[in-house]
Amino acid sequence: MSDEQRVDSGERKSFKPRTNKFFRKKVCKFCVGKAAMDYKNAESLKRFVSDNGKILPRRITGTCASHQRALTREIKRARTIAVLPFAGK
């Protein structure tokens, strides 16, 4: 298709140039602080659960893989004994 045949359906969107921002690598809070996770401590587990009640992924929380698995297990235990809700607010 040549340029003459192309029909412009409005203005083109202008894209903002990317700014080079420095992003700090997230560090696992359990590895660094040697903090113990416990299913009975609802306040510490709420930081790793979204407002809808979903468990937040590693890329957002910054936990390592082994601690993310353990954290998921503790959140599910807390939900089972009704320390944390299954659904959000």
Automatic annotation (TrEMBL):
Part of the 30S ribosomal subunit. Forms a tight heterodimer with protein bS6. One of its GO terms (cellular component) is cytosolic small ribosomal subunit. Keywords: Ribonucleoprotein, Ribosomal protein, RNA-binding, rRNA-binding. The keyword Transferase does not apply. One of its GO terms (molecular function) is structural constituent of ribosome. The keyword Cell inner membrane does not apply. One of its GO terms (biological process) is translation. Belongs to the bacterial ribosomal protein bS18 family. This is Small ribosomal subunit protein bS18. Pfam families: Ribosomal_S18 (PF01084). Binds as a heterodimer with protein bS6 to the central domain of the 16S rRNA, where it helps stabilize the platform of the 30S subunit. InterPro entries: Ribosomal_bS18 (IPR001648), Ribosomal_bS18_sf (IPR036870). HAMAP family: Ribosomal_bS18 (MF_00270).
